[in-house]
Amino acid sequence: MGWLLLIGGVVLWTVPHLFKRLAPEARARMGDAAKGGVALASVAGIVLMVMGYGRADFVPVYAPPTWGVHANNLLVLIGFYVFGIGMAKGALSQKVRHPMLSGVVIWAAAHLLVRGDLASVILFGGLALWALAAMTLINAQSGAWTPPAAKGGAKRDLVAVPIVLVTYAAVGWLHGWLGPWPFGG
Protein backbone atom coordinates (compact mmCIF):
# COMPACT_ATOMS: atom_id res chain seq x y z
CA MET A 1 0.00 0.00 0.00
CA GLY A 2 2.93 2.32 0.72
CA TRP A 3 4.09 2.17 -2.89
CA LEU A 4 0.67 3.17 -4.22
CA LEU A 5 0.46 6.10 -1.80
CA LEU A 6 3.98 7.25 -2.68
CA ILE A 7 3.53 7.04 -6.44
CA GLY A 8 0.05 8.53 -6.18
CA GLY A 9 1.45 11.43 -4.16
CA VAL A 10 4.18 12.16 -6.68
CA VAL A 11 1.63 12.03 -9.52
CA LEU A 12 -0.85 14.17 -7.56
CA TRP A 13 1.87 16.78 -7.10
CA THR A 14 3.22 16.63 -10.65
CA VAL A 15 0.09 16.62 -12.81
CA PRO A 16 -1.58 19.75 -11.40
CA HIS A 17 1.73 21.62 -11.40
CA LEU A 18 2.39 20.78 -15.05
CA PHE A 19 -1.25 21.21 -16.16
CA LYS A 20 -0.78 24.93 -16.88
CA ARG A 21 2.15 24.13 -19.17
CA LEU A 22 0.74 21.00 -20.83
CA ALA A 23 -2.81 22.29 -21.39
CA PRO A 24 -2.64 26.11 -21.24
CA GLU A 25 -5.98 26.66 -22.98
CA ALA A 26 -7.83 24.32 -20.62
CA ARG A 27 -6.12 25.93 -17.64
CA ALA A 28 -7.03 29.42 -18.84
CA ARG A 29 -10.69 28.41 -19.22
CA MET A 30 -10.73 27.27 -15.59
CA GLY A 31 -9.67 30.72 -14.39
CA ASP A 32 -8.89 31.35 -10.74
CA ALA A 33 -10.92 28.31 -9.70
CA ALA A 34 -8.00 26.14 -10.79
CA LYS A 35 -5.75 27.67 -8.13
CA GLY A 36 -7.77 26.12 -5.34
CA GLY A 37 -7.71 22.75 -7.07
CA VAL A 38 -3.95 22.89 -7.53
CA ALA A 39 -3.50 23.88 -3.88
CA LEU A 40 -5.74 21.04 -2.69
CA ALA A 41 -4.02 18.52 -4.96
CA SER A 42 -0.61 19.76 -3.78
CA VAL A 43 -1.46 19.30 -0.10
CA ALA A 44 -3.01 15.89 -0.79
CA GLY A 45 0.07 14.93 -2.82
CA ILE A 46 2.41 15.90 0.02
CA VAL A 47 0.35 13.94 2.54
CA LEU A 48 0.34 10.87 0.29
CA MET A 49 4.08 11.17 -0.37
CA VAL A 50 4.87 11.34 3.36
CA MET A 51 2.54 8.47 4.21
CA GLY A 52 3.67 6.34 1.26
CA TYR A 53 7.36 6.96 1.84
CA GLY A 54 7.03 5.94 5.46
CA ARG A 55 5.15 2.75 4.58
CA ALA A 56 7.13 1.64 1.53
CA ASP A 57 9.35 -1.40 1.99
CA PHE A 58 13.09 -0.80 1.89
CA VAL A 59 14.38 -1.98 -1.48
CA PRO A 60 18.07 -1.14 -1.98
CA VAL A 61 19.01 0.26 -5.39
CA TYR A 62 22.54 1.59 -4.78
CA ALA A 63 24.92 2.20 -1.89
CA PRO A 64 25.10 5.91 -1.01
CA PRO A 65 28.62 7.31 -0.49
CA THR A 66 29.76 7.73 3.11
CA TRP A 67 30.42 11.45 2.53
CA GLY A 68 26.89 11.89 1.26
CA VAL A 69 25.48 12.99 4.64
CA HIS A 70 27.71 16.05 4.82
CA ALA A 71 27.16 16.90 1.15
CA ASN A 72 23.41 16.43 1.64
CA ASN A 73 23.22 18.87 4.53
CA LEU A 74 25.22 21.50 2.65
CA LEU A 75 23.30 21.01 -0.60
CA VAL A 76 19.93 21.16 1.16
CA LEU A 77 20.97 24.47 2.73
CA ILE A 78 22.09 25.75 -0.68
CA GLY A 79 18.86 24.47 -2.23
CA PHE A 80 16.81 26.34 0.39
CA TYR A 81 18.77 29.51 -0.34
CA VAL A 82 18.39 29.19 -4.11
CA PHE A 83 14.67 28.56 -3.60
CA GLY A 84 14.48 31.64 -1.37
CA ILE A 85 16.21 34.09 -3.70
CA GLY A 86 13.20 33.87 -5.97
CA MET A 87 11.09 35.39 -3.21
CA ALA A 88 13.77 37.83 -2.00
CA LYS A 89 14.03 39.41 -5.46
CA GLY A 90 17.52 40.69 -4.79
CA ALA A 91 20.52 40.76 -7.10
CA LEU A 92 20.81 36.97 -7.27
CA SER A 93 17.26 36.63 -8.57
CA GLN A 94 18.59 38.19 -11.76
CA LYS A 95 21.12 35.38 -12.17
CA VAL A 96 18.90 32.29 -11.81
CA ARG A 97 15.97 31.89 -14.20
CA HIS A 98 14.02 29.38 -12.10
CA PRO A 99 15.22 29.76 -8.50
CA MET A 100 12.39 27.83 -6.84
CA LEU A 101 12.51 24.92 -9.26
CA SER A 102 16.33 24.95 -9.17
CA GLY A 103 16.18 24.81 -5.38
CA VAL A 104 13.92 21.75 -5.60
CA VAL A 105 16.37 20.02 -7.96
CA ILE A 106 19.30 20.72 -5.61
CA TRP A 107 17.26 19.51 -2.59
CA ALA A 108 16.18 16.33 -4.38
CA ALA A 109 19.68 15.54 -5.67
CA ALA A 110 21.05 16.05 -2.16
CA HIS A 111 18.63 13.48 -0.79
CA LEU A 112 19.61 10.97 -3.47
CA LEU A 113 23.18 11.22 -2.13
CA VAL A 114 22.11 9.76 1.22
CA ARG A 115 19.23 7.48 0.29
CA GLY A 116 19.84 4.62 -2.12
CA ASP A 117 16.49 2.87 -1.80
CA LEU A 118 13.69 2.57 -4.35
CA ALA A 119 11.22 4.72 -2.39
CA SER A 120 13.77 7.56 -2.31
CA VAL A 121 14.47 7.22 -6.02
CA ILE A 122 10.73 7.46 -6.70
CA LEU A 123 10.17 10.37 -4.32
CA PHE A 124 13.26 12.52 -4.80
CA GLY A 125 13.95 11.45 -8.37
CA GLY A 126 10.30 12.05 -9.25
CA LEU A 127 10.30 15.54 -7.75
CA ALA A 128 13.60 16.39 -9.45
CA LEU A 129 12.20 15.21 -12.79
CA TRP A 130 9.05 17.27 -12.23
CA ALA A 131 11.12 20.41 -11.55
CA LEU A 132 13.36 19.80 -14.58
CA ALA A 133 10.33 19.16 -16.80
CA ALA A 134 8.68 22.34 -15.52
CA MET A 135 11.80 24.38 -16.29
CA THR A 136 12.02 22.86 -19.77
CA LEU A 137 8.36 23.56 -20.52
CA ILE A 138 8.55 27.12 -19.18
CA ASN A 139 11.67 27.82 -21.24
CA ALA A 140 10.09 26.37 -24.38
CA GLN A 141 6.90 28.40 -23.95
CA SER A 142 8.41 31.64 -22.68
CA GLY A 143 11.41 31.98 -24.96
CA ALA A 144 14.31 34.25 -24.07
CA TRP A 145 14.60 35.20 -20.42
CA THR A 146 14.57 38.76 -19.20
CA PRO A 147 15.77 38.84 -15.59
CA PRO A 148 13.31 40.48 -13.19
CA ALA A 149 14.13 43.86 -11.75
CA ALA A 150 15.95 43.58 -8.45
CA LYS A 151 14.01 45.30 -5.68
CA GLY A 152 16.80 45.66 -3.19
CA GLY A 153 20.06 44.48 -4.69
CA ALA A 154 22.46 42.41 -2.63
CA LYS A 155 20.83 43.65 0.58
CA ARG A 156 17.75 41.52 -0.07
CA ASP A 157 19.98 38.53 -0.83
CA LEU A 158 21.60 38.98 2.59
CA VAL A 159 18.23 39.39 4.34
CA ALA A 160 17.30 35.97 2.94
CA VAL A 161 20.20 34.32 4.82
CA PRO A 162 18.72 34.38 8.36
CA ILE A 163 15.29 33.48 7.00
CA VAL A 164 16.76 30.49 5.19
CA LEU A 165 18.75 29.43 8.27
CA VAL A 166 15.66 29.51 10.50
CA THR A 167 13.65 27.65 7.86
CA TYR A 168 16.46 25.10 7.48
CA ALA A 169 16.55 24.50 11.24
CA ALA A 170 12.76 24.23 11.47
CA VAL A 171 12.54 21.83 8.55
CA GLY A 172 15.42 19.82 10.03
CA TRP A 173 13.56 19.56 13.33
CA LEU A 174 10.36 18.50 11.54
CA HIS A 175 12.38 16.03 9.48
CA GLY A 176 13.75 14.48 12.67
CA TRP A 177 10.28 14.33 14.17
CA LEU A 178 8.83 12.57 11.10
CA GLY A 179 11.81 10.42 10.24
CA PRO A 180 15.58 10.31 10.52
CA TRP A 181 17.44 13.13 12.25
CA PRO A 182 19.24 14.90 9.38
CA PHE A 183 22.12 16.49 11.29
CA GLY A 184 23.98 13.38 12.42
CA GLY A 185 24.69 12.27 15.95
Secondary-structure map:
Blueprint: H1 2-22, H2 24-30, H3 33-55, H4 68-88, H5 99-114, H6 118-142, H7 154-178
Structural write-up:
With 185 residues, this protein is mainly alpha-helical. The protein contains seven helices and no strands. The model has no long low-confidence stretch (mean pLDDT 91).
Instruction: Please tell me what the overall shape is.
Output: globular
Q: Describe the biggest sheet? A: none
Uncertain parts = none
Any idea what the radius of gyration is? 18 Å
N-to-C order of helices and strands? HHHHHHH
Secondary structure tally: strands: 0
Overview in brief:
With 185 residues, the protein is mainly α. It has helices at residues 2-22, 24-30, 33-55, 68-88, 99-114, 118-142, 154-178.
Q: Which key phrases capture this entry?
A:
185 residues, mainly alpha, 0% strand
